[in-house]
Design brief:
Helices cover about 65% and strands about 10% of the residues. The chain is mainly alpha-helical. It has one domain. The protein has a three-stranded antiparallel β-sheet with strand order 1-2-3, with no helix packed on it. Strand 1 (about 5-10) and strand 2 form a beta hairpin. It is rod-shaped.
Amino acid sequence: MKQDRAQLMVPGTSGVATDGCLQLPTGGSLKSTLTAHSSRFDEILAAVFDIKAMLEPKIDALKIDMGLLREDHKKLKERAENA
């Protein structure tokens, strides 16, 4: 039998979420499930900010390099026009 409803697997639950209804693990409560997901979200968010902090200096260096390349291109273009 074909199911017409989309199902989404939800980590930490006993199965699937259908039409927005979340099936909680056996013996678990909504509060404990939300707390577990909240804690995981905090870990992921902290990792994202760590990656951002690590990439920002590299992005700034690339911006400087692009600025220098634009200046070089402008100078070369002026030389070509004057030649």
